Amino acid sequence: MNIYTSEQIARHMPHRYPFLLVDRVTGLEPWKSVAAYKNLTSNEEFFLGHFPGRPVMPGVLILEAMAQAALLMLSISYRDFPEERPEGICTDRVESGLFFLASCDRVKFRRQVVPGDRLDLAAELVHVGTHAFKVKAHASVDGDKAAEALITAAC
Q: Are 94 and 136 contacting, i.e. CB atoms less than 8 angstroms apart?
């Protein structure tokens, strides 16, 4: 198990506030899986307009948080565990952290995520290719699944 703090995460991600949606990595199996979380407070900018009087985290941001956790798995694996790297991965883009969402399949939202929740994120690598990777990801709150998706990102 490897734990990465917010300062360490910032060294692995191009995202910054207010769009960095992972606070801590709590577990990592290099090139295989990641566990992370995002603590949500009422001060999150997206809660101001989504929705006044009944703040709910937008589903697209839950998807983004799952994708960011997956990107962290790749970036940390690439930099901290290079000897385990699969052949053929596009190393220049992993180095920069510049991956872009290509598709989200089998997306399901199961519960609302609100201020005060800790959004637990998990991703498991399904496929890594020369210019893309695919993960099976899910997000949960207090053990209840909030969302799940099959996410593909490309460099």
A: no
Q: Which among 12, 15, 50, 127 is annotated as catalytic?
A: 50
Is this structure's pTM higher than 0.70?
A: yes
pLDDT at 101 over 80: yes
pLDDT number for residue 1 = 62
- Write down the domain spans for the chain: 6-154
Report pLDDT for 38: 98
**How would you write the chain as a 3-class SS string?**
CCCECHHHHHHHCCCCCCCCCCCEEEEEECCCEEEEEEECCCCCHHHHHCCCCCCCCCHHHHHHHHHHHHHHHHHHHHHHCHHHCCCCCCHHHHHHCCCEEEEEEEEEECCCCCCCCEEEEEEEEEEECCCEEEEEEEEEECCEEEEEEEEEEEC
* CATH architecture label of 6-154: Roll (3.10)
- The residue among 151, 134, 124, 127 whose CA lies nearest residue 36 is 124
pLDDT tens-digit readout, 29-71: 999 999 999 999 999 999 999 999 999 999 999 999 999 999 9
| 50 is an active site residue | yes
Is residue 102 within 8 Å of 150, Cβ to Cβ? no
